[in-house]
Structure of Phosphomethylpyrimidine synthase:
Amino acid sequence: MTNKDARTPASAQDEKSQEAGKSIGWHKAYVEGSRPDMRVPVRQVHLTNGQAVTLYDTSGPYTDPLVDTDVRRGLPPLRENWIIARGDTEEYAGRPVRPEDDGIKHTSPRGGLRNLDAVFPGRPRQPRRGRDGQAVTQLAYARRGEITPEMEYVAVRENVSPEVVREEIAAGRAVLPANVNHPEIEPMIIGKRFLVKVNANIGNSAVTSSIEEEVEKMTWATRWGADTVMDLSTGRNIHTTREWVLRNSPVPIGTVPLYQALEKVDGKAEELTWEIYKDTVIEQAEQGVDYMTVHAGVRLPYVPLTANRKTGIVSRGGSIMAAWCLAHHKESFLYENFEELCEILAAYDVTYSLGDGLRPGSIADANDEAQFAELRTLGELNQIAKRFHVQTMIEGPGHVPMHKIKENIDLQQEICDEAPFYTLGPLTTDIAPAYDHITSGIGAAMIAWWGTAMLCYVTPKEHLGLPNKDDVKTGVITYKIAAHAADLAKGHPGAQEWDDALSDARFEFRWEDQFNLALDPDTAREFHDETLPAEPAKTAHFCSMCGPKFCSMKISQDIRREHGGSRDEIEDGMAQKSKEFAASGNRVYLPIAD
Amino acid sequence: MTNKDARTPASAQDEKSQEAGKSIGWHKAYVEGSRPDMRVPVRQVHLTNGQAVTLYDTSGPYTDPLVDTDVRRGLPPLRENWIIARGDTEEYAGRPVRPEDDGIKHTSPRGGLRNLDAVFPGRPRQPRRGRDGQAVTQLAYARRGEITPEMEYVAVRENVSPEVVREEIAAGRAVLPANVNHPEIEPMIIGKRFLVKVNANIGNSAVTSSIEEEVEKMTWATRWGADTVMDLSTGRNIHTTREWVLRNSPVPIGTVPLYQALEKVDGKAEELTWEIYKDTVIEQAEQGVDYMTVHAGVRLPYVPLTANRKTGIVSRGGSIMAAWCLAHHKESFLYENFEELCEILAAYDVTYSLGDGLRPGSIADANDEAQFAELRTLGELNQIAKRFHVQTMIEGPGHVPMHKIKENIDLQQEICDEAPFYTLGPLTTDIAPAYDHITSGIGAAMIAWWGTAMLCYVTPKEHLGLPNKDDVKTGVITYKIAAHAADLAKGHPGAQEWDDALSDARFEFRWEDQFNLALDPDTAREFHDETLPAEPAKTAHFCSMCGPKFCSMKISQDIRREHGGSRDEIEDGMAQKSKEFAASGNRVYLPIAD
């Protein structure tokens, strides 16, 4: 979304430039809301023609040179006063943090708590929850007709009226994930009437990666445009990693509580219990997790439906729950205790992301009986969640060939009463490991065009290993492309202005503007300079692709210059001539029979 | 396309392994046709479970350890005897090669001809053409009901009957580009009933790149899967570069003769004449160019239609012809002399690629009046070409948002009597320079699913610079993904077997098989080893993404092992139990009103 009229002081730009080195050409700005404490961040790109383009910004205070950030202190609690002012929450002692929360066994030789800051060094904070278990969710407020500061904030971000935001949330067609214990976030909204969003997964595994790396991946992902981040850590120090990520994240954080619960029973699925799971959900809700993937749709009777699949169950959570169901030959404890779970989430405004534990893991398994049986259950659970005023989105596949993608979104929208769809890809072929950001970017763009509200990114390392910083960037950029292509196809107001600004810069050979307007200015500049590094080339009316003699845009401009200065003049003059030509028959050959 | 039954001697595999180092796990094999001189190359992947998968192969003799290739000698003239045996062509002296052919001005201090092998060192060869100007095209043969060796060759390659190939060519729904002066090619076919093909552009510009580089890019592009290559050279030594590329290319070569013609008039569009253009077409036809982009659809009356565009005319050829039309205020000399051009192409079996000189260069200009006016003219020219038995395909955009893509292919198929559509992307957004292989890969997959026969790749350097070897590989791999995703969506027979083979390997943790079946085995292996380099990891039942405890596929397998060995056993046992559960009501919650 762009706003050509926006302006910004050059001084601020210079500061930013010096501070962020490569970021010359744009700076962080804020749009004021209806109150002084509501300043919505935007990315202002300064064009060499004096205009400015304003873009949606997810990078948080880290890109504001006037804000001094410190990961050990965490981000300022932007929403704290808004939450307190509502008067419907209370602080309480909260659940004590135990070594097991970090996956440390009592038998463990060296406790993880001892070898790093288990307790986040930032300001001490007691957890907060709804008074006497009342629902303190944006959904509850929206249904009551209240427009919260969070709703106004996203309205400014999306260039829509606050009432539209309230309506979409009230109808369950959009979610605004904002745990009362995560006041640091800059509110954002997920729904098909708004800009398509992108989630980036981070998280260490038992095999590799550290807390510092994960926090860095989170800030790096948001810098490139991730709208939310899921911490899928499964190894040691899982509680502590999450605390650091939450306190430093300007975007909503999602998790899969089942992973930590499994750690607490030493990875033995059959030893999982509702009590351990519930304790884990409360633990994470108190930390401030904004949305949680819950695989309550993986039911005992559906497991046999996966038996003849080519790749069985590929969702971690799905396979864990299937293993539990079979081990006990009982219905899923998540499905059986879903209403109690709703009460817990409602008290913190944790949003459901109902997981598709039976999503297909290969082209062969797409749109099969197992997948759609679970989807119907998710539709049922969505209605229950809504009864408890819990915001809910629905997760989707996975691996799906192009001709089967639309059926997924259409069915989900019908079965789940238009609840926001949140899909992983889908990957449109299985033959390109190391390029699954592309096999899935294709499917992601299509399913987003058709109504998916948020896309979970896939990195080049999918199926092969844990993504590093470069993979995270590649995954985010690829998915920002898919999301924006969908915004264009959906005719989202303002979406095309960004493309138009870049195309104008391209036609007018404003190279610096092309770089600064690009999703990834650094790489665009680097690629250009590989073949034409000299500064003059930045103003040259050609690039190394065609060379000066063959630049079609240069020739187009020459045409316009030589045949009338303005576009209108040339058109008038030429239109006249061409009319004469048309009058003369307008064709050289007679129609061909046969 | 795969053939699980195929087998291959281990010895041959070892040879290959030693020869090509990284290529362990697959080797070049041949499928015999109906005659000893017809050996159709395939890529045989050897799986660790003893099976083999046979894939389409475009890499030419370069990947055959038993063939000793030498770029200074060129490739063996595979088709020579087939062409001679038809007895409808004759050798002749041919047009003398002049310094101007290499862009050397008489005034030039050092003639390009002197500072490199202008005359290709390989075997001397006289050009060949149809006797007394008769059409020696595959279209003419197909219409006469003849199944040529070339047709049988592609039938074997595509796993279809030769009659299907003949029918599609005769109907003009497919082309088999094969200049009688390019006997080195391994015949391939372009049509919507066959596998979607990918073209890779190479070519130096006045600014950079050398002959050796271009030949290397061509062999590199075909190694990764390019089905045809276009030499878009525009600088010095253009004739000589083309000669080297042609003599060493196992795939059809396309060009845009207008580029060389413009060099001959020192880049002054207005000085172009039909005679200079015609002389250039004959020059290139004698060298063996298999298909030529001709911008005959850019007509005088259409130029004004581009005047109010955001990015004007972005096709080099289109802008050159527009400049010529305006300078003389005359109808295009290509349009006016199209019938004579048909006679020339028919005598060599050069295939038309009717260029879309007015394709949109930005999202804002997509599907506009200028683009579709030209398309209607291309439909008219297609019918004329068919009268002369010239094989013809139609070029398409460009920059098109997703919701406007289908209109392009549908209109083209209707207006051009289902002639093969050959599109550049289309790019689905303008905001990601440096990632336009992805912005366009999305559009390419969609338009191919809907019927486009060949996709012209876009590399990460598009809009920024001349692609290097890495960019060529990235562009080809991205487009092979788009093409295969489309083959899957079209339900092309055999297409899914490749995905299934890889998915089976994935589910069974056959890592080496996953790598060898991947579009890019080297990168897949490298990414895996980044986090788990040790050899044992190649047999491990997990990767670093989730670690051993969380591998969903491992859990799925455990489930199957523990609950009955075979998939059927587990299903029987579980189905029984789940029936009982279903009988008991199968749900925990009552339907929700509201």
